[in-house]
Design brief:
The structure is a single chain. The protein is an alpha/beta fold. The chain folds into two domains: 39 residues; 166 residues, Peptidoglycan recognition protein-like (Lysozyme-like, 3-Layer(aba) Sandwich). It has six helices and eight strands. The strands form two sheets. The chain has a six-stranded mixed sheet with strand order 2-5-4-6-3-7, with helices on both faces. A hairpin with a 5-residue loop joins β4 and β5. α3 crosses α6. It is elongated. The termini are far apart. The structure holds zinc ion. Zinc ion binds next to loops.
């Protein structure tokens, strides 16, 4: 009799343990699926941009290999009213003026136009100690507040979303210059934390609506 009760208790215990383990496995699988759904979408359509690569020189295009791209750093030009072309030309002119070392992979203008200055296989001089493993985007702005025009903002969302797909970033890999050095850059997104959070949400939303699922088993 005691043995039977013992067996019964053991059987019940086994069922309970198996049930818990199964429930945990199912939950883990569901969480993994949800995560995969969020990040498997990629924006494959390249935004329009004008490629005007800088002349190789030690001040703005040192041609140092960018071996591993781990993130994307957002900046503002800190030069109100200037155009993307003017900022490009400033970087280009550093080879002669030798004033400082500065550049960026991309510049977005007030009308939303995008200029690429440095290939994504090379470093730019934009983000201090993160130059060696990140890409950079400089954004033009109208005034001292550093707030971006709607056109600049929309291009920034589009370019960021596309780069996330191209380099397998999540929005956690998208940071501000401020997050590297504490610098007031990009000013509007430093002064308005809610606007920065909203920007990251807008990038996620763009990927969700414009991205396509990667075919199963392809990496
Ligand atoms: Zn910056």
């Amino acid at each position: 009799m005691l043995r039977r009760i013992g067996l019964f208790v053991a059987a019940v215990a086994l069922i309970l343990v198996l049930g818990t383990v199964t429930a945990k496995l199912i939950k883990a699988r569901e969480q993994k699926q949800a995560l995969a759904e969020n990040f498997s979408r990629k924006v494959t359509e390249m935004p329009e941009f004008d490629v005007q690569l800088l002349t190789p020189n030690p001040y703005s295009r040192p041609q140092t290999a960018l071996k591993e791209v781990k993130g994307l750093v957002i900046h503002y030009t800190a030069n109100p009213g200037t155009t993307a072309q003017q900022n490009h030309d400033y970087f280009e002119g550093l080879k002669d003026s030798k004033l400082t070392k500065a550049s960026s992979h991309f510049i977005i203008g007030i009308d939303g136009e995008i200029i690429q200055c440095i290939p994504s296989s090379e470093i730019a001089y934009a983000s201090n100690e993160r130059n060696e493993d990140t890409l950079s985007i400089e954004c033009c702005h109208m005034d001292e507040t550093g707030e971006f025009t709607e056109a600049t903002y929309n291009s920034l969302v589009e370019l960021t979303a596309w780069l996330c797909g191209k380099f397998d970033f999540t929005t956690e890999d998208v940071i501000r210059h401020y997050d590297v050095t504490g610098k007031d850059c990009p000013r509007y997104f430093v002064q308005h934390e809610d606007a920065w959070e909203q920007f990251l949400l807008d990038v996620q939303e763009y990927i969700k609506t414009h991205g396509t699922e990667e075919p199963e088993g392809l990496s």
